[in-house]
Amino acid sequence: MSKKPSKQDSLQENSETRLAHTPAIEASIRPADEMPHEFNVHQSELEARYEELGRAHLALEESRDRYLNLYEFASVGYLTVTREGLIAEINLTGATLLGVERNKLINRRFATLVVSKDSDRWHRIFMGEMQHEEGHNFELMLQRGDNSVFHAQLNCSWRLTAGCAPIICITLTDITKRKYAEEELRIAAVAFQCQESILIADANQVILRVNRAFTETTGYSPEEIVGQKLRILHSGHHDDAFYAEMWVIINRTGTWQGEVWNRRKNGELYPQWLTVTAVKADDGTVTHYVSTHTDITVRKAAEAEIMDMAYNDPLTQLPNRRMLSDRLNQARVSSQRSGQYGALMFMDLNNFKALNDTHGHDVGDLLLIGVAHRLLDTVREHDTVARLGGDEFVVLLENLGKESKEAAVQAELVAQKVHEAIAGDSYNLKDHVYYCTASIGVTLFHNQDTPEDELFKQADLAMYQAKALDRNHLRFFDPSMQTALDERSALDADLRQASMRGELQVHYQPQINSLRHVIGAEALCRWTHPKRGPVSPSIFIPIAEETGLIIPIGLWILETVCAQLKEWEADWRTRNLHIAINVSARQFRQTDFVERIREIVERTAINPARLKIELTESLVLENVTDAIKKMLALKALCIGFSMDDFGTGYSSLAYITQLPLDQLKIDESFVQNILTNPSDKVIVQTIISMAHTIGLNVIAEGVETKQQSDFLEHSGCLVYQGYLFGKPMPVDEFLTHLQ
Ligand code: C2E
Ligand code: MG
Ligand code: MG
After folding, report:
1. Do 615 and 633 form a contact (C-beta atoms < 8 A)?
2. Which pLDDT belongs to residue 19?
3. Residue 412: which CATH number?
4. Cα–ligand 1 centroid distance for 611 (angstroms)
5. Pairing relation of β-strands 533-535 and 504-513?
6. How much distance in Å is there from the Cα of 496 to the middle of ligand 3?
7. Which amino acid residue places its CA nearest to atom 2 of ligand 1?
8. What's 210's domain CATH number?
């Protein structure tokens, strides 16, 4: 920006450029004693004129000074340019604007001051328009002596002086500031019409201006809203104290930001993110308020949806694991405060997987929704029902009393109610009538001593015990369960060594027909632990399943059994006997399951028709298509199949008929109560007649008494296995037993 010329510069220059006194005036003001005598007569008159002249001269000089000051220090630059484009003269303001000493500007070509981008324009104007027109106004970018540039406004006109070539008079104004201001206004105007709603109010909160986005969001046109007080936008959602506090903050800090519910013209309430800024004058008084806001209806809805998704199970709308975890933590804190017990109840639907696999996931989903409703209807309002995924539900109970025994009784009551609610009535799943049962594990908590994940583990463990030991029932976690868990891992370690140390054996339990002839045996694995003695397969088989040890163990059993069959072929007493082996899910899932069996059967060269494989329903239902494929491949080798523990699982005709089975094996639990429990009696009879209808033979396991075998025989079941006819025994004993 140009520097204003100083008085000092001008005084020095003035003294040089000021006109000298003319000789005529010099003469007229000579002193009286130097005058010729004849003039003395009128001396007094002359003195008076002399004084007058002196005054006139002084006035003239003052006027010249004033004119020079006016010219030199004018607020704009003046310069004259010759027809050839050379600067003839320039005032001090002009030289200062250009940042070049005046004497260096005289005779300089004006075009050299024009920045290169504008130089063509200058030539066009100078050579064309300016030559013909009277006055000409235009803007140019000029370059100062220090190479900085500025926006200049030039007003040009021709001056004709007698006898001299015409010259151009130029008034030069630095309009850089104005240009910037214009630019800023242009930007501000564009910015004002942005996506955000903008409102400008005066210091009295009277609305002065709104932008298009504001009109679109609120529905108010500028005509309707300008002149109104800001209050018109209040929704009634916030109280007066809210707004009072907001204005206190704005006036104290200059700005306020937050979420506000306002009302559109159509009455609709909507959330907005509002920023109010006070515009202050130099003295600090507020002159305006600028309010910008964005409609956050969509964002709020998305947030709510995300929250919902993050904390709720989308299928049942029940809290998910995360929300349960929050609630459990709150419950532990409040238990700490109140001294009251709470309980965490895990439940898992029995045979859910089978339902899903046979009827499809949409039917499974309907069951889960149904169970969720029943659970919600059963528990108290402040108890939490959550779904962890799959068929796992959790109920969190609070305020169960200050005594552990009392709390356990309360929790058990709820658990029983929950169990009855789930199992009581049938579910209508599309066109299926379905009955469902659950296994429930419960753990109590008191204060915050037990960490959250520990409580989850405890309830989970109790649930698994409920499932494993006592189907359809309920188990409480207690420290002895933990001991069982520890023992389990110790057993796992020992089991890994067992086969190498020769601690595993195969025992054979006879299977007999109605003539009481032994027709075969079931091979059952036995483990004699060096310290613990015999360990039940119902304990070590699940461990082996879990750790994968079942694969080598299963192969070892198969090898042993095939070798046994081969040996029996040589003996007339045993050559017609078959042996049934148990196959666990993990073994069956192996992709090379069929191949391994084929290989062993071929290598040992046994008669495959003497080998029978026992499968369970749940194993088959894991993947029915795959099961059928594998079974058919083994059937092609003449290996037989028996469905073990039949009746405890899904027991549906629909899939049983699809499987290439030879035999159904009625589960011992039905046989046990066959004489006392009418429903077990009916189940057994139904299984027998169903088996006959679809052409399968049927065997009953766990037969312990003559009455049981009589009843079974009477009902049409002609093959039996059970203590009545012999326990599982080592092969030598089995041979003796045959005799
Ligand atoms: P399972 O296949 O259902 O075997 C029948 C179970 O009933 C055997 O228990 C047998 O000893 C028992 N049992 C037989 N007669 C009677 C009776 O009259 N009364 C009673 N109360 N029980 C009787 P065990 O040997 O303890 O085997 C339990 C389960 O362990 C078996 O059930 C089977 O699922 C599994 N298992 C046993 N050996 C093997 C094996 O080599 N491989 C696999 N994968 N599983 C096996
Ligand atoms: Mg079996
Ligand atoms: Mg069985």
Report:
1. no
2. 35
3. 3.30.70.270
4. 17
5. unpaired
6. 25
7. 582
8. 3.30.450.20
Instruction: Indicate if the alpha-carbon torsion angle 616, 621, 626, 628 is positive or negative.
Output: positive
Atom of ligand 1 nearest to the CA of 506: 41
CB of 723 shorter than 6 A to ligand 1: yes
Q: Find, among 647, 680, 662, 678, the residue nearest to 613 by Cα.
A: 662
**H/E run at residue 542:** helix 537-547
Tell me whether residue 374 is in a domain: yes
Domain-located, residue 402 = yes
Ligand 1 contact via 667 beta carbon (within 6 Å): no
How many independent structural domains does the chain possess?
A: 4
Tracing tokens 């206004």 back to the chain, one arrives at: 185
* 506, 508, 524, best to mutate for ligand 1 pocket (most atoms within 8 Å of CB): 524
Residue-wise pLDDT tens digits, 154-211: 998 888 777 777 888 999 999 999 999 998 888 888 888 888 899 999 999 999 999 9
- Is 419 inside a domain boundary? yes
Q: Which residues contact 321 (CB under 8 A, 6 or more apart)?
A: 386, 388, 389
- Cα 645 to middle of ligand 1, angstroms: 10
Q: Which ligand is nearest to the CA of 522?
A: 2
User: How high does pLDDT run on average in the chain?
Assistant: 88
Q: 94: Cβ below 6 Å to ligand 1?
A: no
Ligand nearest to the Cα of 645, by number: 3
**Global confidence as pTM:** 0.49
In Å, the largest CA–CA distance within the chain is 190
Ligand positioned closest to the Cα atom of 702: 1
pLDDT band for 450, please (50, 70, 90 cuts). Answer: confident
Which domain does 585 fall in, by range? 493-738
Quote helix, strand, coil % in the chain, to nearest 5. Answer: 50, 25, 25
37: pLDDT strictly greater than 60: no
75 lines ligand 1 (CB under 6 A): no
Residue 403 shares a structural domain with residue 375: yes
